[in-house]
Specification:
With 275 residues, this protein is an alpha/beta fold. The chain has 3 domains: 3-69, Orthogonal Bundle (Arc Repressor Mutant, subunit A); 70-161 and 262-266, D-Maltodextrin-Binding Protein, domain 2 (3-Layer(aba) Sandwich); 163-258, D-Maltodextrin-Binding Protein, domain 2, CATH 3.40.190.10. It is 39% helix and 21% strand. The chain has 10 helices and 14 strands. The protein has helices at residues 3-15, 18-24, 29-43, 59-85, 99-102, 106-113, 125-133, 194-205, 221-229, 239-242, and strands at 48-49, 56-57, 94-97, 119-122, 139-144, 154-167, 176-178, 181-183, 188-189, 209-210, 217-218, 235-238, 248-249, 258-266. The strands form 4 sheets. Strands 3, 4, 5, 6, 12, 13 and 14 form a 7-stranded mixed beta sheet that branches. The longest helix is centred in the first third of the chain and has 27 residues, at 59-85.
């Protein structure tokens, strides 16, 4: 099993088209198809119905989809956790949060709440949730979308934000929606990321396709923001990162904005009996 295979699988789940998935993964269709086949051989089952248009997941593919997203996140979160454990800092409070919130929302919130002597660990949304559930974290701050489960944690809303399709005034070619096709240079999140899944679900609900191959693909909103500022394309960026950026919301329907809450997570309190 290779991480590359998981990203290939998620790309095809998102595009439902081998040609577009290969372009998104910056490879040829033949090389891409071989990698998908290797994954299927390793798992011992066909993941896609190649006869359907668009390509559909088989029952085995549907089963692997949720696990693939979790596997990808856990691999990267494992690395972050190991690096954190090697710290020389004597920790009194362990805070898990995402990179976006660490770079924007967290600092003013820490000033307001007057927390001191803490260790800050940056992880994926799933990684933050898991750390709080397992009591590896004293608290977590995450963006939360309405369709996501919060079982096993205590959650408090401490803010709100939204993903906005934004572009720079310097961008030469605008991004426009014409007859359910999004035209122009667009940048996307890596398959398997929460932001990417939410955007893909919104586009699928309204039967909208990104017509051209993505200009850039990244798991990082901050990385995409830098590309948008350079005028290289448009991307869905958290509004909290757009302040004072000089970027503008693209002309698009209101449903293109994807709202979410910012939650403070804490481990559930034990009962008096310790259960």
């Amino acid at each position: 099993m290779e991480l590359q295979w998981i990203d290939d699988f998620l790309a095809l789940c998102q595009t439902r088209n081998f040609t577009r998935a290969a372009e998104a993964r910056c490879t040829t269709q033949s090389a891409y198809s071989r990698r998908v086949q290797r994954l299927e051989e390793w798992l011992g089952a066909s993941l896609f119905d190649r006869e359907s248009r668009p390509v559909r997941l088989t029952p085995a593919g549907e089963e692997f989809l949720t696990r693939a997203r979790r596997l990808r996140e856990e691999i990267f979160d494992a690395r972050r956790a190991v690096l954190s454990a090697s710290s020389h800092f004597r920790k009194s409070l362990r805070i898990y949060t995402t990179n976006t919130l660490a770079a924007s929302f967290l600092s003013p919130w820490l000033v307001e709440t007057r927390l001191e002597n803490y260790s800050l660990i940056v992880a994926s949304i799933a990684g933050c949730l898991e750390a709080v559930r397992r009591k590896h974290a004293d608290m977590g701050l995450i963006p939360h979308f309405a369709d996501e489960s919060l079982l096993g944690v205590t959650a408090q809303e401490i803010g709100r934000d939204r993903l906005i399709l934004a572009a720079s005034p310097r961008q030469k070619r605008p991004v426009v929606l014409e007859q359910n096709k999004l035209l122009g240079p667009v940048m996307v999140y890596t398959p398997g990321t929460t932001y990417g899944a939410q955007i893909a679900a919104m586009l699928d609900r309204h039967r909208i396709q990104i017509q051209e191959s993505p200009v850039c693909e990244s798991a990082s909103a901050e990385a995409l923001l830098a590309q948008v500022k350079a005028g290289l394309g448009a991307a869905w960026i958290p509004e909290i990162l757009l302040r004072d950026s000089g970027l503008k919301r693209c002309a698009a329907p209101d449903f293109f904005d994807i709202a979410y809450k910012i939650l403070l997570l804490k481990p559930p309190k034990q009962s008096a009996g310790g259960e």
